[in-house]
Amino acid sequence: MQPDKVLTYRYALPESFADEIAKQRKIADKLSMTGFLLPQIVLFVLAVIYAAACRGWTSFKRGLFLSAAFFVMYAGFMFNLRPGLRASSAGMNAIAAESDVTALLVTNVVILFIQALLTYFAAVGGDGLWRSMGRSLWPRWQDADYGSRVKTAMKQGYMLAVILLGVQSVVLTGLGLLLGSYYGSDPSQSSYNMYYPWMLPLLAWCAGISEEIQTRFFGIGLVRKWLGALFRPQPGGDASDSGARSSSALSRILTSIAVLPATAVWAFGHVGYAVYPWQTRFIELMIIGALFAWFMLRFGLLAVIFAHVVLDSTLMAVQMLSDGLSGDNLAGFVSFLLPAAVAMLIAWLHERRRGGTGSSAAVSR
Q: Using one digit for the tens of pLDDT, what is the confidence trace for 347-356?
C-alpha cells in the first residue's frame, strides 16, 4: 500500500453462481422492459387522454401536491444515493468516474420527473374514471369530513399493513420451499451506501404515492371502464330483483378481472430486485397486489397509500435497526410512526382551514 494509491477489493463469486445470477438478471431485464416499461409508456398516454376526457367529473388540481411531493422526495433521495450509484456502476476492478455517476443521476432525475407527470395525470384521470362510474374512492379537501377520513384511512392503513406483512411472510416462506428462492445484495439499496441513511424511508412514501395512484387507482379504473363499456346491459333489460342481482354479480366479476392486468404490470416492475429466481417476486406481488386492489376498492385510495407506506416503512425500519449505524435506531422508529404523524397533521390543517374559510376551501390536492 502507498499513501497516494487507492486500494479496492471485491469478493469473487463462483463462476457457476455468477452465470446463474447473470441469466436471472437478463430474464428480469427483458420482463421489466416488456411487462412494465412499455405498459408504463402506454399508461402515460392514456392517463393524459382520460384526464382530459373525464374533466367533467374531476379537477386538474387533483394530485398536484402528491405528484410534486413524490418528485421532491425521490429526487432528494437519489442524490443521497450517490455512493450507491457509484458502487452499482463500477466494474469489478474499478471505481466509477464521477462524470458517469453524475450522468446517471441526471438521467434518473429526468425519469423521475416523467414519473411525477404520470402520477399527476393518473390521479386526475383515475379520479374522473371512478366518479364517472359512480364511485368516489378519494375524498376531496373541500369535504367537511376530509380530516376525519384521513385519520380513518391512516388507522386502516396500519391494520392493513399488518395483514400484508403476514401474507408476505407466508408467501415468501412457501416460495422459498417450492422454488428454492434466495436473496442477493444490491449496493444501491444498502444504507451503507447513502450519505444520510435516515432518508431511506422516503422511498416508502414515493412508492406508496406513485404505485397506488398509477397502478391501482388509474390502472384498475381504466380497465374497469373498458370492461363496463364492453358488457353494458342492454336498454330495457330485466329490472326485477334477479336482474339487479345478476347485474351486481357481473359488476363484481368485471372488477375482479380489471385487477389482473394492472397487478401484473406492477409485479413485472419489481422482478429486477435481487431476489431469485425472478418468479419469486412476480408471484409474491401478484398476491400482494390483488390484496392491495381489494383494499382500495373496499377502503379507498388513501387507506392503501397509508398501508403501502407503513408496509415499506416497517421493512426499511427493520433494515435500519439492524445496520448498526449510529442514529438509525431512532430513524427506524420515526419512520414507522411518521404516517400517523402526517395524517394527524393533515387533519389538523384541514380543521383549521375549514374553520377559517368554510366552504371556500380549494379542491383536494
A: 999 998 876 5
